[in-house]
C-alpha cells in the first residue's frame, strides 16, 4: 500500500477527486453495470482531464499498483474495477465536438453512446454504436463494436479515425493511420490494455431517421423464423440490418398486456435506406408477427429503446462466440434453450457481421472474427 503522504501528494496534483475506502460515496463509486462484480479498489481517481490520467498512471506504476480503467463500466467481467488497486474513472472526461463539414465527432472517453447520439443527431449524422445508449464509448470501441449499423457502416472500430492515449510510461500519444500505426491497429479490437484512451475521433454517416424496431413471433415459430432469417440476412442489402433474439416480453408499456411475461422470439430491425415499405413488404409477408413495432423513428430512439429493460445493477453472466453458419442442427439447439429462459432478463442475441463489416481485411485490425 502506498504511504499516506504519497496519496496526499497525488490528490494535490489532480483536478479531479480521489475516493478511498473510508470516504463517503465509496460503495457507489465502485459499482459497475454488472451487479455480480463486487471489487474493492484502494483508490478511485475521477480524472478531470488528460493531466489527471498521466498523474494516475505514473502513480500506479511507481507504487506497483494494479490499474483498472473505467469508461462506462459496462464490461460484463468487471474489467473497469479491481481489488486493492487504482481505478482510473474516466466518466468526468465527457465532451463531444462534431465537425459537420468533415463528418467527424471527437468524444471524451467518459462519454456514453447516448452522449454521442445526442451530439450527432442534431446534424443528421450517426456512427455505429452498439444497441444500448448507456454503454461507454471506450469499452465498445476497443472491443470492436457490433450494433444496429454494423451491416451499413461496419464495426465501430472501422469508423475510428484516431485516438489519444496515455501509455504505461505516462507518455501521451496519438494513434491513427499516420501516427503510431501499430498502436492504432492494436486498439481497434484488441481491448483496453495498450494504454488509457482519453478521446476518440469517429467518422460519421448521414443517418437521421431509421426504419426499425422489434418484430416478435410465437416461440413455436422459432425454427421457421431462424431459417428464414438465416437465408435473408446473407443476401440483404447493406441498408438492412437486424439481430435475432429470444426474450421474455417485459410486463410494461408499450408492450400489450396479453404478451406480458411471454417467452417469444424476434428480430430487431434497423433499415437506413429510402425504400422501407418495399423492403419490408416481403418481410411482413413471410409470417404475421405477434407484435410489429417496426416503423420510422430517430436513430437515437432505436439506440436507446431497450435501456430501461437492462438497467445497471442487475446480475449478469454473459457468454459469446462467433460462427460462420447457422445449421439446422444449431437452430434445433437454440429452440431447446430458447424455450427454457430462466428469467425475464435471460436472452440470446444473434448479430450479423456481414455487409460493410465483412469488407475489411481479417488482419487489417486486431478484431480477428471477420
Which SSEs are present, and which pair or pack?
Blueprint: H1 4-13, E1 17-19, H2 26-29, E2 43-46, H3 50-62, E3 67-70, E4 86-89, E5 96-99, E6 104-108, H4 113-121, H5 137-143, H6 150-153, E7 160-166, E8 172-176, H7 181-187, E9 196-203, E10 209-218, H8 222-235, E11 240-248, E12 263-271, H9 276-286, E13 291-292, E14 295-298, H10 299-303, H11 328-338, E15 348-350
Parallel strand pairs: 2-4, 3-4
Antiparallel strand pairs: 1-2, 5-6, 6-9, 7-8, 7-9, 10-12, 10-13, 10-14, 11-12, 11-15
Helix pairs in contact: 8-11
Quick take:
This protein is an alpha+beta fold and 370 residues long. Helices cover 26% and strands 22% of the residues. It has three domains: 15-89, Uridine Diphospho-n-acetylenolpyruvylglucosamine Reductase, domain 2 (2-Layer Sandwich), CATH 3.30.43; 96-206, Uridine Diphospho-n-acetylenolpyruvylglucosamine Reductase, domain 3 (2-Layer Sandwich), CATH 3.30.465; 209-355, 3-Layer(aba) Sandwich (Vanillyl-alcohol Oxidase, Chain A, domain 3).
What does it look like?
The protein is α+β, with helices and mostly antiparallel strands. 26% of the residues lie in helices and 22% in strands. It is built from eleven helices and 15 strands. Strands 10, 11, 12, 13, 14 and 15 form a six-stranded antiparallel beta sheet that branches. Strands 5-6-9-7-8 form a five-stranded antiparallel beta sheet. Helix 8 (222-235) crosses helix 11. The model has no long low-confidence stretch (mean pLDDT 96).
Amino acid at each position: 500500500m502506498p504511504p499516506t503522504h504519497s496519496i496526499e501528494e497525488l490528490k494535490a496534483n489532480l483536478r479531479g477527486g480521489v475516493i478511498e475506502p473510508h470516504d463517503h460515496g465509496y460503495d457507489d463509486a465502485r459499482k459497475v453495470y454488472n451487479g455480480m462484480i463486487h471489487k474493492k479498489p484502494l483508490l478511485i481517481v475521477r480524472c478531470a482531464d488528460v493531466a489527471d490520467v498521466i498523474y494516475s498512471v505514473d502513480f500506479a506504476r511507481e507504487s506497483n499498483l494494479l490499474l483498472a480503467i473505467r469508461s462506462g463500466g459496462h464490461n460484463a467481467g468487471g474489467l473497469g474495477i479491481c481489488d486493492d488497486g487504482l481505478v482510473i474513472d474516466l466518466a468526468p472526461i465527457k465532451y463531444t465536438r462534431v465537425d459537420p463539414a468533415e463528418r467527424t465527432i471527437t468524444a471524451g472517453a467518459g462519454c456514453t453512446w447516448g452522449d454521442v447520439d445526442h451530439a450527432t443527431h442534431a446534424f443528421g449524422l450517426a456512427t455505429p454504436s452498439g444497441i444500448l445508449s448507456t454503454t461507454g464509448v471506450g469499452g465498445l470501441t476497443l472491443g470492436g463494436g457490433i450494433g444496429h449499423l454494423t451491416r451499413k457502416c461496419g464495426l465501430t472500430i472501422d469508423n475510428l479515425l484516431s485516438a489519444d492515449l496515455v501509455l504505461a510510461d505516462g507518455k501521451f500519444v496519438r494513434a491513427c493511420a499516420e501516427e503510431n500505426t501499430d498502436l492504432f491497429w492494436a486498439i481497434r479490437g484488441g481491448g483496453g490494455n495498450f494504454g488509457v484512451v482519453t478521446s476518440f475521433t469517429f467518422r460519421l454517416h448521414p443517418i437521421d431517421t431509421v426504419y426499425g424496431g422489434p418484430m416478435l413471433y410465437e416461440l413455436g415459430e422459432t425454427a421457421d423464423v431462424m431459417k428464414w432469417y438465416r437465408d435473408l440476412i446473407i443476401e440483404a442489402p447493406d441498408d438492412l440490418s437486424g439481430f435475432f433474439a429470444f426474450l421474455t416480453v417485459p410486463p410494461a408499456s408499450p408492450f400489450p398486456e396479453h404478451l406480458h411475461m411471454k417467452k417469444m422470439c424476434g428480430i430487431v430491425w434497423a433499415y437506413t435506406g429510402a425504400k422501407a415499405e418495399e423492403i419490408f413488404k416481403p418481410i411482413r409477408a413471410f409470417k404475421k408477427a405477434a407484435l410489429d413495432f417496426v416503423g420510422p423513428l430517430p436513430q437515437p430512439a432505436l439506440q436507446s429503446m431497450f435501456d430501461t429493460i437492462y438497467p445497471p445493477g442487475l446480475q449478469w453472466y454473459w457468454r459469446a462466440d462467433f460462427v460462420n453458419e447457422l445449421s439446422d442442427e444449431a437452430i434445433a439447439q437454440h429452440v431447446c434453450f430458447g424455450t427454457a429462459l430462466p428469467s425475464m432478463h435471460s436472452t440470446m442475441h444473434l448479430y450479423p457481421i456481414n455487409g460493410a463489416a465483412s469488407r475489411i481485411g481479417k488482419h487489417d485490425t486486431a478484431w480477428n472474427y471477420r
